[in-house]
């Protein structure tokens, strides 16, 4: 039997993200006072503290908060590194959508008024330097669907919403491009967004293939986390945003 050509094999591999069962799991960012932030999110936003752990041997603590269990809701993971009381959020991170500027660590939240939704934590907004390239990357590497785009010449910006279902059904990624701005500071506060997959090895293959065309790179090869029955891979997109 003749072997498939490399082009055919790559085309077949690129179909995998569209077939995979994926959803946004959580966004990770660093805070300077974990208890203060937990208090703010639970009292001001009505989030639930789902779990909290302290890892003294690695000098950090983290907490997961959301509007329902991690198994079915998108949640936030707050990380506190011992002795670090503040972080630089940078100019690239936009907001999480559920707007108040009173978050104790300076993260911006956008409150959206709309009908009942199964996913109250509904957007993660990141700024990118080439919107077309980023749309292609998230479609091809992660199998997301482009839900809508908005171009606003009067505000000199354009937006794209991408995700695994419609905006009123699930968490989506909002990519923002400001005319003429090709680069942003990342800071050291926002860390990454986590997405589920049925096959971390095959997913990493796809990402590796797409990065050769559009940029970005694998930063952690696929495999199990020591001591846990969880397999992960990590990568950055063409703008350096980590998944």
UniProtKB/TrEMBL annotation:
It holds the Pfam family Glyoxalase. Keywords: Metal-binding. PROSITE patterns: GLYOXALASE_I_1, VOC. Residues 120-243 form the VOC domain. GO terms for molecular function: lactoylglutathione lyase activity; metal ion binding. This is VOC domain-containing protein. It comes from Citrus sinensis (Sweet orange).
């Amino acid at each position: 039997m003749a072997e498939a050509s490399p082009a055919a094999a790559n085309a077949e591999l690129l179909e995998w993200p569209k077939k995979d069962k994926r959803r946004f799991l959580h966004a990770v960012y660093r805070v300077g006072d974990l208890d203060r932030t937990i208090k703010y999110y639970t009292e001001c936003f009505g989030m639930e503290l789902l779990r909290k752990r302290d890892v003294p041997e690695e000098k950090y603590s983290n907490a997961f908060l959301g509007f329902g269990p991690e198994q079915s809701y998108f949640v936030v993971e707050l990380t506190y590194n011992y002795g670090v009381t503040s972080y630089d959020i940078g100019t690239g991170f936009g907001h999480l959508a559920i707007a108040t500027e009173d978050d104790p660590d300076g993260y911006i939240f956008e409150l959206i008024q709309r009908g009942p939704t199964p996913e109250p934590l509904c957007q993660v907004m990141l700024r990118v330097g080439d919107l077309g390239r980023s749309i292609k990357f998230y479609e091809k590497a992660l199998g997301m669907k482009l839900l809508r785009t908005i171009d606003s010449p009067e505000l000199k910006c354009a937006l794209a919403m991408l995700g695994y279902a419609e905006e009123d059904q699930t968490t989506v990624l909002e990519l923002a491009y400001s005319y003429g701005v090709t680069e942003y500071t990342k800071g050291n506060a926002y860390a990454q967004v986590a997405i589920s997959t049925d096959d971390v090895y095959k997913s990493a293959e796809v990402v590796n293939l797409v990065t050769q065309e559009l940029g970005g790179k694998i930063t952690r090869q696929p495999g199990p986390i020591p001591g846990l029955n969880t397999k992960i891979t990590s990568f950055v997109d063409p703008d350096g945003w980590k998944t």
